[in-house]
């Protein structure tokens, strides 16, 4: 038989658009020509995007394939292929667009949350296929919405968390799903509204003042702050002013602050309740009226010379009756001078200082601003030449108030001027002076004191030169005959007079010689030396400069005198002579053959 598969077509034109949720019916028709009338099987194959979707076999020349409900994921390119009696024919492509997405479903983990917790939401779009972008929207009571976006590649749902904020009471949420693919992008309708209610663990605190609205200094202030607890939570409640905590309690629902009002209590009070991450505050302004103004201390003068009269007057604007006292500083607490509004003294230098006055009415004490008083003393009373250091002179004023200008003169010659700010003395060095000379120095001093424009002090000073270069010698040098004399000479090259010279023998405590003389050398004779006087000697010199110089050691030997040497020589000669005579006598006896020979054992 003959068979031709002629036309095969979908019932629709090339692009087919359908709304999401509607159904699509695809009909595949084959036009068959055959030579005889007989029944024949047709295999219909439906493809979407080149992958097999459905196949069916029929004797009919058409078949239908239904997609219901149509979802976005069903968008694509469809075709159908018919096989009959080993012949195949393909239809043209049909593009199907499913428009829109179905509505997502939003659920909240809890329908009621406590402040400080978070709201967990899940948005689901059951019949559609990922990937999706989910958009969560929080609609606040103040109409300001907050959004969170989440991309989901594999699942058809997503979860997010929204923190609960202060003042959140009833929260409304919605979600929207979006899909993007090669066929285009679609956005769903918003989900239906999900409502979450917020439970307050405690109410906003209430801050009240028990005292009347207009408080005056000296009145009592009672501030109470309370909150209402939903359950007995361990809350902390406190009252603060300018970041300073005035009182606080824990585990109670109220706190109080009580005090006697002063102007310092003026201001903004805040009550704060805290529980974990939740904190709520309330503020209140308190105005305290002044009972009386701060006192004013008025001095007659602030800078004055000693012995002048100084008056201090303490008063309050509006002159109400008050108890006054006048206090001087330092020390920190002050010294009470007088419990009266007026105070008059004849000023002394030690009255220099800071003064304040205090006024007391109804137990409220107020202090004036401090007033600085300076009493200037006479600039100079004494002059201290410092003799320890040869060229250093110190000029000092006992009670002078700095700054003081000091000027030093040698004779009529000005040496130096020094201004001191935080001392009462000046130190001068006179480098030009001649040592060992008597000079008249004069020191002048002046300060702001008007009585003594220039105080001066004169003094004659000898500049002392310390002893230097000591040398020690003797005559005769080194050796002295027993019984002979020795002359010691001790000399210094330099040194102011008088000079104290001392001569010592080594290892002996008491000096052999001591003299204070108006010369730079001393000669001392020691008579009739014996062997005991042999040894080492030295000398020392010192003067008012308090420097002691010690000489080299000098060795003294005591030797025999010349007459003693002669005596010894004579004695030796006599002995030799006797021996010679004895010898000669022996020899004579032997020659004569005399037996008397034995008398001389020495022969
Ligand atoms: C399909 O078959 C029916 C009878 O079964 C016939 O009436 C109709 O003309 C055929 N259509 C085509 C296009 O061959
Ligand atoms: C059509 O489906 C049947 C069973 O449903 C299957 O055996 C056959 O292989 C399919 N044809 C094609 C071409 O896939
Ligand atoms: C306090 O308020 C009362 C009533 O408003 C008023 O009569 C009184 O003068 C006020 N006192 C002060 C000190 O402001
Ligand atoms: C602070 O609070 C405690 C307890 O409420 C109270 O006894 C105390 O007087 C308060 N202190 C002040 C300064 O108000
Ligand atoms: C008081 O202080 C609070 C917190 O510091 C502030 O929010 C408020 O505006 C202040 N009120 C006044 C009247 O200054
Ligand atoms: C101040 O008075 C004291 C005591 O009467 C007196 O010694 C001193 O010299 C006076 N000072 C002046 C600068 O007059
Ligand atoms: C205190 O001194 C002031 C100013 O010197 C004077 O006006 C006032 O009368 C004095 N008061 C008394 C109580 O002396
Ligand atoms: C101040 O000095 C005077 C003497 O000049 C003395 O009588 C008085 O006690 C001193 N005052 C103080 C506070 O040291
Ligand atoms: C004294 O005053 C001078 C100049 O004002 C300053 O440089 C110095 O540090 C001060 N010395 C002391 C001990 O205060
Ligand atoms: C101290 O000397 C300086 C500079 O020479 C001068 O300006 C000042 O007036 C002098 N002060 C006094 C109190 O004499
Ligand atoms: C210092 O010595 C000179 C000369 O000897 C004498 O005229 C003068 O008065 C002396 N000065 C003092 C302050 O002693
Ligand atoms: C010098 O001798 C005198 C008199 O003995 C004594 O007063 C003085 O302190 C001595 N000086 C020195 C510097 O040793």
From TrEMBL:
Membrane topology summary: Single-pass type I membrane protein
TM helices/strands, residue ranges: 567-587
Main localisation: other
Location of this chain's protein in the cell: Cell junction; Cell membrane; Membrane raft
A Pfam family that the UniProt record links to this protein: Ig_2
Cellular compartments per GO CC: anchoring junction; external side of plasma membrane; membrane raft
InterPro entries tied to this protein: Ig-like_dom, Ig-like_dom_sf, Ig-like_fold, Ig_Fc_receptor, Ig_sub
Alphabetically ordered keywords of this record: Cell adhesion, Cell junction, Cell membrane, Disulfide bond, Glycoprotein, Immunoglobulin domain, Membrane, Phosphoprotein, Repeat, Signal, Transmembrane, Transmembrane helix
Leader peptide range in chain numbering: 1-21
GO biological process: cell surface receptor signaling pathway; cell-cell adhesion via plasma-membrane adhesion molecules; immune response
GO molecular function: transmembrane signaling receptor activity
Residue stretches making up the Ig-like domain: 205-287, 295-374, 466-555
Name the UniProt record assigns to this protein: Platelet endothelial cell adhesion molecule
Name of the gene encoding the protein in the UniProt record: PECAM1
């Amino acid at each position: 038989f003959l068979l031709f598969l002629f036309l095969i077509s979908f019932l629709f034109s090339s692009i087919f658009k359908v709304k999401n949720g509607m159904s699509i019916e695809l009909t595949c028709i084959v036009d068959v020509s055959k030579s005889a009338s007989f029944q024949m099987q047709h295999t219909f194959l439906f493809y979407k995007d080149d992958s097999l979707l459905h196949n069916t076999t029929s004797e009919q020349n058409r078949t239908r394939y239904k997609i219901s409900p149509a979802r976005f994921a069903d968008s694509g390119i469809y075709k159908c292929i018919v096989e009959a009696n080993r012949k195949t024919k393909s239809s043209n492509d049909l593009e199907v667009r499913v428009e829109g997405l179905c509505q997502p479903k939003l659920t909240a983990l809890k329908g009621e949350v406590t402040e400080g917790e978070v709201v967990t939401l899940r948005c689901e779009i059951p019949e559609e296929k990922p990937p999706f972008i989910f958009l969560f929207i929080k609609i606040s009571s103040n109409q300001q919405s907050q959004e969170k976006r989440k991309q989901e590649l594999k699942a058809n749902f997503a979860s997010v968390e929204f923190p609960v904020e202060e003042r959140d009471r009833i929260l409304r949420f919605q979600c929207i799903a979006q899909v993007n693919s090669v066929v285009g992008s679609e956005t769903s309708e918003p989900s239906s509204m999900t409502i979450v209610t917020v439970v307050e663990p405690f109410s906003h605190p209430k801050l009240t003042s028990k005292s009347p609205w207009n408080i005056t200094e000296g009145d009592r202030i009672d501030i109470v702050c309370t909150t209402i607890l939903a359950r007995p939570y361990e809350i902390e409640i406190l009252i603060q002013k300018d970041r300073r905590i005035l009182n606080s309690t824990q585990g109670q629902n109220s706190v109080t602050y009580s005090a006697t009002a002063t102007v310092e209590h003026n201001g903004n009070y805040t009550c704060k309740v805290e529980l974990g991450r939740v904190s709520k505050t309330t503020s209140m302004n308190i105005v305290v009226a002044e009972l009386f103004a701060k006192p004013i201390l008025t001095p007659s003068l602030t800078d004055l010379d000693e012995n002048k009269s100084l008056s201090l007057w303490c008063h309050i604007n509006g002159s109400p009756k008050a108890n006054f006292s006048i206090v001087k500083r330092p020390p920190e607490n002050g010294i009470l001078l007088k419990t009266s509004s007026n105070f008059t003294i004849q000023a002394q230098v030690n009255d220099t200082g800071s003064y304040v006055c205090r006024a007391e009415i109804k137990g409220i004490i107020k202090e004036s601003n401090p007033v600085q008083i300076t009493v200037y003393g006479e600039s100079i009373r004494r002059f201290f030449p410092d003799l320890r250091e040869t060229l250093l002179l110190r000029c000092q004023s006992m009670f002078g108030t700095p700054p003081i200008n000091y000027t030093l003169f040698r004779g009529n010659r000005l040496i130096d001027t020094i201004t001191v700010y935080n001392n009462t003395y000046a130190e001068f060095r006179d480098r030009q002076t001649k040592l060992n000379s008597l000079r008249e120095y004069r020191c002048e001093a002046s300060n702001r004191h008007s009585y003594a424009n220039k105080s001066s002090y004169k003094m004659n000073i000898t500049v002392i030169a310390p002893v230097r270069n000591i040398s020690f010698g003797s005559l005769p040098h080194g050796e002295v005959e027993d019984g002979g004399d020795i002359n010691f000479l001790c000399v210094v090259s330099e040194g102011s007079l008088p000079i104290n010279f001392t001569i010592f023998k080594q290892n002996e405590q008491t000096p052999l010689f001591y003299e204070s003389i108006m010369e730079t050398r001393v000669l001392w004779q020691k008579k009739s030396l014996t062997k005991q006087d042999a040894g080492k000697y030295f000398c020392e010199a010192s003067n008012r400069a308090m420097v002691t110089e010690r000489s080299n050691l000098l060795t003294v030997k005591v030797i025999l005198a010349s007459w003693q040497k002669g005596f010894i020589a004579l004695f030796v000669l006599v002995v030799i002579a006797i021996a010679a005579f004895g010898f000669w006598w022996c020899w004579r006896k032997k020659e004569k053959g005399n037996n008397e020979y034995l008398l001389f054992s020495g022969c």
